[in-house]
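Q: what sequence does this backbone want?
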C-alpha cells in the first residue's frame, strides 16, 4: 500500500557510533554512497534512505532518513542535513558512551529548534548487561536538561549486527513520525538543495527535503539566490515517480532551464515572488555555555538549512555577548541566502573551528536608514510577539505608507492566504485598502487627517489627486481609499481628478490660519527630530520667506520653540511629552548616551535639546551628566 504521510528524520552522533549501520539494519539501504566512504568506513557526506511503517492509527507512513557524518572535520555536511529535519535519532555507542560530537550534534539540534526525537544505545552486543545499564544511566544524566531528556523520551538499546532491539526502534520511529508530523500549509513552498547531479536521459536533478508547500510536475519555480527560472520536468520520492509532492518529503526534482554545474548545495527552490534571498538579517542569538564571547564586528560562519555563509556581527549594544546569554544583533551576510522570519540557524567560529551558538531570524527585511535605538526597541517587542502581534508590529512600522500583502507575507515567511486569514484583518485593527495594501486603523485615520489638512491649505479650488499624492507622498491605493472615505462622509467634493474640502475658506485670513495649522502639524509630526525650515517649506509647497514668517508667528504663540540655531524648531507638544517622561526620572542623572537611547535621537538633535532642558530648569548639567530636577 502506498504511504499516505511522509516524515524526514535525521541521525546524530559521534563518528563510528553506528549511525549508518543502524539505518542499514532498519531499511536495508547503505547510505555510504561515495567510494571514499566505503574505503575509509566512515560517513563523509549526507546519506539517504527510507522505510515504510504502520502508524499507531493503522495508516501507512514513509520515514526518510538523512544520515549525517559524525567526524568533526565534516560538521559542515552534518549541519546541511540537520537544518532540514523536524526530528532526530541520537545514536550513542554502548562501548564508548557520550563523546565530543555527541555533545556538539545535540547542541546543534537544540539550536535549530528540533524538539522531537529519541536516543539509541548502539552496539549493545559489545557490552555486558551491567555495563549497558551503567551507560544508560550516564546517557540519561547527559540528556536530562535537553529536549531528549525525561521519562517520555525513549533510550533504546540495539544491535545492528544481531538485530536485537530493531523492532523496538521501528515502533519508536512510527510513534515519533506521528508526533513530529506538522502541517505547513501556512508557509510557502521551500526546497533547500543538498545534492545536484546529472542523470543520463534526464539532465539536471536536484534533491532536498521539502520543508513546506507542494511541488507539481510542470510548474515554473525559481532558484535562489540568483532568481533563475526553471521548470519541473519530473518528481521522484525514493525512486517512485510522482505528480505532486507534499511537505515533509525527500524529493528528487528533474529541472529544465539550468545546467547541473550552475546549481549547488545551499540554493533553494521557491515559487516566484514568494521568498527571496537576503543578505542582512536582524536576529535573536544565544551563545552556548563555554563558547568565547562574541564581539561587535566579529565574523562567524552562519549555517541555515543547507546554506553556509560568512556573517559580520553588529550588536545592538556595545558590550560583547557573554556565553550562555541571548542578545539581539544584525548579521550582514557575505552572500545572499533564502531566509525568512522564524528561521533557525547555527553560528560557528572560524578558528579554532567550533559551534558557538545559534538563533532565529526576527526580521529578514530590516528597514534602511532606521535609527538603531528605534530598531532595537521594535525587535525587543517582536522577539516576544505572538503571530498576530508580529503582523501588527510589521504593519505599524510602515506607518502611513502601508505594506503590500505579498511583501508582508515574504517578510513573515508565510503564504499570502495565511496573512489574509489572520484574525487582525477581520477585527478591523489592521485595514486592507485598495485590495492589497495593509495599514493600521490608527495610521489610516492619520492619513485622512493629513489629506484634510492639505486640502484646507489649498482652499476652495482644491487639488488634483496627482498633486495631493505628491504633497503627501502616500501610496496611490492608500490615498484613494482615504479620499473615497472622506467623500463618503461628505467632507470632500470630487470633480473628476479635482478634490476639494467641503466649506473650504476663501478669504485671506482663513487661508493664513490654515497655512499656520499645516506648518504646526508638520513640526508636530516630526517630533523631537524636526526638519529644517527649507525642508518643511518644500514639503508644504510654501515659499521659504513666507515659511519663516509663519514660523515667527508660531514662535510668538509658543506653538514652536527655537532649539539653538536659527533653523531648528520643535513643536510644544513633543516637548511637553518629553518633560513628562523625564519627570519619572526626577533625582537621577543621565548622560548624553542615555538621553539618546531614551529619545531615539542622534547627537545632532540631542545636544540642542539637552541645552534647552538646562535653560528651562528641567535638567541641570553636572560635568558630563545631567541631573533631572
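A:
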Amino acid at each position: 500500500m502506498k504511504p499516505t504521510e511522509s516524515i524526514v528524520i535525521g541521525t546524530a552522533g559521534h563518528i563510528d557510533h553506528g549511525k549508518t549501520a543502524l539505518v542499514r539494519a532498519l531499511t536495508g539501504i547503505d547510505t555510504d554512497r561515495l567510494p571514499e566512504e566505503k574505503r575509509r568506513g566512515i560517513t563523509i557526506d549526507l546519506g539517504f534512505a527510507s522505510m515504510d511503517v504502520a502508524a499507531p492509527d493503522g495508516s501507512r507512513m514513509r520515514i526518510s532518513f538523512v544520515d549525517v557524518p559524525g567526524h568533526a572535520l565534516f560538521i559542515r555536511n552534518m549541519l546541511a542535513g540537520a537544518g532540514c529535519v523536524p526530528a532526530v535519532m541520537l545514536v550513542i555507542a554502548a562501548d564508548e558512551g557520550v563523546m565530543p560530537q555527541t555533545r556538539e550534534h545535540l547542541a546543534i539540534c537544540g539550536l535549530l529548534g528540533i524538539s522531537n526525537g529519541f536516543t539509541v544505545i548502539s552496539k549493545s552486543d559489545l557490552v555486558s548487561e551491567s555495563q549497558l545499564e551503567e551507560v544508560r544511566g550516564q546517557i540519561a544524566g547527559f540528556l536530562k536538561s535537553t529536549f531528549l531528556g525525561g521519562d517520555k523520551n525513549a533510550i533504546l538499546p540495539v544491535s545492528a549486527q544481531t538485530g536485537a532491539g530493531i523492532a523496538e526502534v521501528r515502533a519508536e520511529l512510527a510513534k515519533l513520525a506521528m508526533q513530529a508530523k506538522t502541517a505547513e500549509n501556512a508557509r510557502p513552498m521551500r526546497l533547500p538543495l543538498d545534492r545536484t547531479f546529472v542523470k543520463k536521459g534526464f539532465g539536471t536533478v536536484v534533491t532536498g527535503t521539502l520543508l513546506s508547500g507542494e511541488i507539481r510536475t510542470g510548474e515554473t519555480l525559481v532558484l535562489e539566490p540568483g532568481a533563475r527560472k526553471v521548470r519541473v520536468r519530473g518528481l521522484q520520492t525514493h525512486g517512485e515517480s510522482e505528480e505532486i509532492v507534499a511537505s515533509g518529503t525527500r524529493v528528487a526534482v528533474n529541472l529544465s532551464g539550468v545546467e547541473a554545474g550552475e546549481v549547488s548545495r545551499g540554493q533553494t527552490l521557491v515559487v516566484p515572488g514568494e521568498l527571496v534571498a537576503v543578505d542582512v538579517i536582524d536576529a535573536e542569538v544565544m551563545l552556548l555555555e563555554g563558547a568565547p564571547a562574541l564581539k561587535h564586528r566579529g565574523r562567524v560562519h552562519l549555517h541555515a538549512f543547507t546554506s553556509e555563509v560568512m556573517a559580520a556581527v553588529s550588536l545592538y549594544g556595545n558590550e560583547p555577548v557573554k556565553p550562555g546569554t541571548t542578545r539581539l544583533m544584525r548579521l550582514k551576510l557575505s552572500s545572499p541566502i533564502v531566509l525568512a522570519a522564524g528561521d533557525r540557524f547555527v553560528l560557528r567560529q572560524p578558528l579554532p573551528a567550533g559551534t558557538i551558538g545559534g538563533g532565529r531570524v526576527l526580521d529578514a527585511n530590516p528597514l534602511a536608514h532606521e535609527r538603531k535605538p528605534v530598531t532595537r526597541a521594535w525587535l525587543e517587542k517582536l522577539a516576544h510577539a505572538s503571530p498576530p502581534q508580529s503582523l501588527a508590529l510589521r504593519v505599524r512600522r510602515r506607518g502611513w505608507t502601508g505594506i503590500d500583502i505579498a511583501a508582508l507575507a515574504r517578510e513573515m515567511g508565510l503564504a499570502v492566504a495565511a496573512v489574509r486569514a489572520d484574525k487582525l484583518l477581520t477585527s478591523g485593527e489592521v485595514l486592507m485598502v485598495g485590495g492589497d495594501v495593509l495599514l493600521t486603523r490608527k495610521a489610516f485615520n492619520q492619513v485622512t487627517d493629513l489629506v484634510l489638512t492639505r486640502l484646507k491649505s489649498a482652499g476652495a479650488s482644491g487639488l488634483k489627486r496627482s498633486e495631493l499624492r505628491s504633497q503627501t507622498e502616500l501610496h496611490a491605493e492608500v490615498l484613494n481609499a482615504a479620499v473615497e472615505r472622506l467623500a463618503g462622509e461628505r467632507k470632500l467634493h470630487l470633480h473628476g481628478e479635482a478634490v476639494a474640502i467641503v466649506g473650504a475658506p476663501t478669504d485671506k485670513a482663513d487661508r493664513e490660519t490654515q497655512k499656520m495649522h499645516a506648518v504646526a502639524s508638520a513640526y508636530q509630526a516630526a517630533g523631537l527630530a524636526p526638519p529644517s525650515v527649507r525642508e518643511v517649506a518644500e514639503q508644504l509647497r510654501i515659499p521659504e520667506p513666507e515659511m519663516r514668517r509663519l514660523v515667527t508667528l508660531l514662535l510668538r504663540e509658543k506653538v514652536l520653540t527655537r532649539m539653538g540655531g536659527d533653523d531648528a524648531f520643535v513643536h510644544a507638544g513633543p516637548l511637553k511629552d518629553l518633560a513628562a517622561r523625564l519627570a519619572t526620572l526626577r533625582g537621577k542623572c543621565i548622560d548624553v548616551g542615555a538621553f539618546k537611547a531614551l529619545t531615539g535621537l542622534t547627537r545632532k538633535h540631542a545636544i540642542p535639546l539637552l541645552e534647552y532642558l538646562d535653560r528651562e530648569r528641567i535638567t541641570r548639567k553636572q560635568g558630563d551628566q545631567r541631573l533631572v530636577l
